[in-house]
Structure formats: structure tokens, C-alpha cells
Hints:
45% of the residues lie in helices and 19% in strands. It is built from five helices and five strands, in the order E-H-E-H-E-H-E-H-E-H.
Amino acid sequence: MSEKKPRIVAVDDELEFTDMLKEYFGLRGYEIDTASKAVQGMELINTKSPDIVILDLKMPGVSGEEVLGLLKSKHPKAKVIFVTAFDDAGKTRARMLNAGAYAYLDKPISSLKDLEEVVNKAYKE
């Protein structure tokens, strides 16, 4: 029997990135759904109840920070991993981690294997 893998929802306005995540995690047996807008992402989160949410910070419309706030109230067990190119000398990173994000990774990600390790670590905690 194989180990149960976390259910993932990834929300990022860069389709290339979400396609890459869907392919990488899908090929490895993860259930992964993706959305390019925060509103779609929240709908997916509400219907799929994921274990892990991979989230971009800066998106048109609703920001990743707002999604994190909604997630924490509606789906407190879901672990949020931010993956973003936004950099303000760590201020936002500290704020997101204090607000309940599990991890905050910088884009471009050096390797999807690293992200997968963070996802599995978050799932086991």
C-alpha cells in the first residue's frame, strides 16, 4: 500500500507555473487542482478541502494575503505554502508566516523536488 499523498490546490496567475506544478505533482500521484485567480482558487479550496495550498502572493484582484486570511478561518487545517517572486527584504515573508503560512518560498523555485519536500513535510505535521 502506498503512502497517502496530500491533496493540493495551487493558485497562481502564472499559468506556466501552475501547469508545471500540475504535471510534476500529477505524475507523482498527487491530487492537484489549479486556479489562475484567487476567486477560483477559493472555490476549489471550498469544494476540494485540500491539505496543502500553494499560493502566489501578488495576483490580480484578491491577493494571496487575503486568501490566507479566508483560509485560516474556513479551513484552518490546510497548510499554506507561498511561492512568490515578490521581495521586500523579508517583511512580507515574516508577516505571512506570522499570519499562519507554513512556508514562504522564492520564485523561481530552484527545484520542484524541494517544493515537494516542503509539501510532504507540511502534510506530515
